[in-house]
Amino acid sequence: MKRSLPRSWLAYAAYLLAFGLAGGYVLSLGVRSLYAYNFLKSGHRGFRGKVHRADAELGFAAVPGSQGLHVFPIGPPLPMRYNLDELRVPASDASASPRQRPFVLALGCSFTYGDACLAEDTWPYLVARGLGGTALNAGKCAYGLSQMLILARRLVPRYRPEYVLVQFSPWLVGRGTSGFARSTFGLVPVPYLTLADGHVGLQPPCFRAMVFDLPFPRFDNKRRGLGEFLSFFFTAGAPLFVHDDAYVAMYEARRLGGGAADAEREQASAAGDDVNRLVYREIAQVCKDDAATMVLVRLSHPLERHHQELKELYGDVVYVDAQATLDAGVPNGDPDAYYRRFGHWRGEPPVLVDTHPNPEAHGIIAREILSRLRAR
After folding, report:
1. Phi, psi of 223 (to 5 degrees)
2. How far is 104 from 292, CA to CA, in rounded Å?
3. Which of 7, 53, 203, 340 is the most exposed place for a label (fewest CB within 10 A)?
4. What SS3 state is found at 183?
């Protein structure tokens, strides 16, 4: 006859298990917080200052009227600014709204925003200046096709721009169906595209991002020490990761339940070319409804030969293969040569600190767009 363990032993084993799980989780919070802490204390690349916020529709957006810095592992930072309309403007420009027509609205990701460049060196700004008008640069780093569609629906009727510059890059549709933006630490849910019966839909972010509400900018400096880390852990690191873990658990539970929106997102993800056509076609229709000229600007990884033309949108869409123009400026199709010319280099000896288009590349893109527009 088997003897069962006394209840006191079972309770003790349950206590040890619970204690071990809790201790392991606290340890994981500490490790993740230490990674985030070390990133902020290092010579990192990115933004410094509170310039972005959580947004219920876009996932994240600009803080109206905010100023900050682009920082790099090497060399001085560059100033950046959003005006009160949440559009990127030169750091010296405090205006709240556009002033001079023609208005040139730009939609896209960091390639449109102009990561690592001054606002006045970016192709949306240069195109607007070449046309004698005002740039409305709505590009944001890490944005995808879902946010571009939302902004087209919102901003084209609001501003009624004469021109709408729309970035076309192969990664935008993947971002538009993933449901999460790229981030250094913490989760940033974003709206995602769905596909059902040949129609594209939009779903809101699955939960609200917490990373923008916590005091991470306060720790973005060189100060170190046990007290500094403990303050970071309790006010920023642990609250962020506890929040994200809890909401991810709920999100995964909903996914296991087999929701229709998740199935339609998977369908959209698998049908990237079809989703591209449908979304860009809708943006073209939005532009047509408000008598704006849509300019589709192809930007890609260097020397990428295979791409979707998308020339079945509308006859009055202006197509600019800016990437082909950049590629043509590189001898022998050499990717290293491409980045030597069009990447961001700093230090002595020079080090490649950012692979986004540099001011020279932005100038070439702008000249190509202006050439096509004037040829019409």
Report:
1. -70, 135
2. 9
3. 7
4. coil
Handedness of CA 174, 180, 181, 182 (dihedral sign): negative
> Quick one: 139 exposed, middle or buried, by C-beta within 10 A (0-12, 13-18, 19+)?
buried
Domains of the chain with bracketed CATH: 36-375 (3.40.50.1110)
Q: Is the pLDDT of residue 217 over 80?
A: yes
Mean pLDDT of 36-51: 93
Q: With beta carbons less than 8 A apart as the criterion, state whether 324 and 298 touch.
A: yes
Cα dihedral across residues 167, 277, 206, 256: positive or negative: negative
Tens digits of per-residue pLDDT, 322-358?
A: 999 999 999 887 889 999 999 999 999 999 999 999 9
Alpha-carbon gap, residue 138 to 373, rounded angstroms: 21
The tokens for 242 are: 């506890």
Would you say residue 316 has pLDDT above 90? no
Q: Are 201 and 194 in contact (CB under 8 A)?
A: yes
Over 80: is that where the pLDDT of 16 sits? no
The alpha carbon dihedral of 31, 37, 43, 46 has a sign of positive
Q: Which residues are 164's β-sheet partners?
A: 105, 294
CA 181 from chain centre, in angstroms, equals 6
The C-alpha R_g of the chain, in whole angstroms, comes to: 24
Taking CA 179 as the corner, what is the angle to CA 178 and CA 181, rounded to the nearest 5 degrees? 85
pLDDT digits (tens, 9 = 90+) for 224-253: 999 999 999 999 999 999 999 999 999 888
Q: How far apart are CA 194 and CA 334, in angstroms?
A: 38
Is residue 70 over pLDDT 70? yes
Whether the pLDDT of residue 213 is over 90: the answer is yes
pLDDT digits (tens, 9 = 90+) for 161-181: 999 999 999 999 999 999 999
Amino acid at 14: A
Would you report the helix, strand and coil content of the chain in percent, each value rounded to 5?
45, 20, 35
Calpha distance 236→36 (Å, rounded): 10
Q: How far is CA 255 from CA 31, 36, 251, 258, in A?
A: 28, 28, 6, 5
The mean pLDDT value for 355-362 works out to: 97
